[in-house]
Specification:
2 domains; 2 helices
């Protein structure tokens, strides 16, 4: 009986761990966008590989952003 109780507790802790993982570590679109905004002073500072086509990287208000062509 004790063994079943221990196994149930392990399973419960595993489920709690998964829930915590999803709540705190799953990125949203806003966090992905924030990570892409690199600081810049001129357009040359922005990486060309940062954006997917047909968008290009552009220095806007001191940060690189992807802009539609």
């Amino acid at each position: 009986m004790q063994r079943r109780k221990n196994m149930a507790q392990i399973q419960y802790m595993f489920y709690v761990f998964i829930i915590i993982l999803f709540v705190f570590f799953i990125p949203t679109k806003s966090t992905i966008r924030a990570l892409r905004m690199a600081p810049c002073k001129a357009r040359a500072d922005c990486s060309k590989l940062m954006c997917e086509l047909p968008k290009i990287s552009w220095c806007f208000h001191g940060y690189c952003e992807c802009v539609q062509v």
